[in-house]
Amino acid sequence: MRRPVRKSLIDVLIPHTRQGVLSATLLRPTRSWYLADLARHLRVRPSSLQRELAMLTDVGILKSHRQGRMVYFQADTDCPVYPELQGLLTKTAGLVDVLRNALNSLTNRITTCFVYGSIARHDETTASDVDLLLVGQLGLADIALPLRRAQESIGREINPKLYRPEEFAKRLAANDHFLKSILKKPKLFVIGTERDLKQLWNQGKVFRERPRPPNN
Fold first, then answer.
1. Which of 23, 94, 128, 205 has CA atoms 20 to 30 A from the CA of 13?
2. Does the pLDDT of residue 83 top 70, yes or no?
3. Which of 108, 198, 102 lies closest to 150, judged by CA?
4. Where are the alpha helices (DSSP H) in 27-139?
């Protein structure tokens, strides 16, 4: 018997079309969207967004302004639940879920993968790239197409840093300044957890403590 498809957390909480509207507006709060432009971005009919935009504006999650004959919609950053909603969307429909789905076919070759930098710290701007670190048994050619598709979906440039597990562990053992700086700061895990990073750190300790060959 076929097992039922498991829904994601965000699908249970928020209808799909509303997810798209919230992701487009709350994750790029300085951008204003007019109806047809937003519909094109979400690949839906404008009529399917009218009710969503009106409802979200009525409750204060979005704000609107008129410019000529066009009505523009934008995130209202003064909304009391704006930070919480933005954080939820970043971790689900807006970013992390998109990346996780894009890399799904490569999961068994990835030890850990996480977003770092301004987006993980929640101080990004509309121009901020997605800084992504991956550790796994793969090359840039393997991730190029999946990340390109994810990039088109989220509307942001994705900058991957890719390491093989042994290389990552050796760099940790050598106290690589870049990696040490990243690991001390906020991260949004796409694949794996802090436990996987700890295991890589322990591997690095093995390299660090391994006796060096005597000089001839």
1. 128
2. yes
3. 102
4. 35-42, 47-58, 82-91, 96-102, 118-121
